[in-house]
User: Fold DUF1092 family protein from Tolypothrix tenuis PCC 7101.
Amino acid sequence: MNIWQADFYRSPQQDTTGQVLWELLICDANRSFEYVASCPQKEANSSWLTAQLELVSGEKLPDTIQVFRPQSLSLIEAAGRNLGINVEPTRRTLALKQWLEEKQYSIAIDKAPPAPLPENLWGEQWRFATLSAGDVETAFSDRPIPILHLPEFLKPLNLGLPSTAPVPGVVIYGGRQSMRLARWLHEARPVSLNYITGAPDGLVLEAGLADRWIVATFEDAEVAAAAKVYQQRQQLSQKLHFLLVQPDDSGMTYSGFWLLQAED
Assistant:
């Protein structure tokens, strides 16, 4: 599969007349292919992008273009529709971000304060949990789970984790709302679930390109101690962790499982 990573945003450079420029950068995952083009801000639209994608691709269009910047997404999606290219919003455009940093361009994304989960999605209870790295894939890959997010690049074996390494996670018992919560999470595209200290402490879900959601809050000292262990174990698992949604604690039925990894 031919996958590109792309960014289309205001450039820190200006043209000779002082006009603001927008710059298009495209690369593949190992940067064996790189492409740069720019245009005046007044020409920065999907038509210009479509023409550039046709120009650089020749006769072989990419299967997918990955985009990490929310401000770039709608324009690249429109150009993708014009050419029949799938556009994937994802924070994991590592090669592109490395390239932008080398050019000393900003990759910072403005994020709003975390919002509470909609009340109709709240689970009945939740807890911290741990799986051995060797069990992460085998425990769920063969089960009939409606929503299963186990990307190859996050599987413990592919990260080089020992099979005995503890991988921390959070289990939510959703009760009657279990499948509704799992479907909502699937659409939100979870990235990581982080422990945030405060008054009160909480668990914040990073999702999509810039979304943040409050999954739980707590003031209990015992829960806070468990949360610190959860965060410490992430440091030992290359930030790998998981989120499991199930109706109850019977272990008979699961609604959704996500393998996650916090951003650097």
Summary: The chain has a mean pLDDT of 93. The first strand starts at residue 3 and ends at 14. The domain at 3-102 is CATH 3.30.420.10 (Nucleotidyltransferase; domain 5).
